[in-house]
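Dear colleague,

Thank you for sharing your sequence with our group. We've completed the structure prediction you requested, and as agreed, I am returning the results in plain text so they can be pasted directly into your records. Please verify that the sequence below matches your submission; if there's any discrepancy, let me know and we will rerun it promptly.
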Amino acid sequence: MTILLWLVLLVLLLGVVWLIVQPIVVWTDKSELRLYCRLALLLLATMTFGVLRLYNSVVQNTRFLFKVREVLQKVLVELPNLQRSLNMLGSKTDSLKGTMSNSTKALGSLSDEARELLSSLKVNGNVKKPR
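Please find the predicted structure tokens below.
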């Protein structure tokens, strides 16, 4: 089946080439006019298929844009919820930063107290060295 299809396409292509070349091969007084008319018909056919292809791409892009619009509408409905969640997360992050800074200060003061206690124990000479 595919060989037959390729054979038909080859015959059609050779026919089109012959229609263009025939006025050159068999030159008469009207060959120039025939050549121009045949070239114009070939260009018209090419432009017709080009315009049909352009129309098809415009239709496909329009369908795609409709689908994109539907998806974007769903996303836009969810955006306020997302904004609210991000604001809540930001406030929780700020409170977490505050807690971390308070904990760091408390640990710093405890560390200072432990150093003072260790230095006072060293002064008294009661510190045993670990093995």
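Summary note from our side: The helical segments are 2-25, 31-124.

Kind regards,
the structure core
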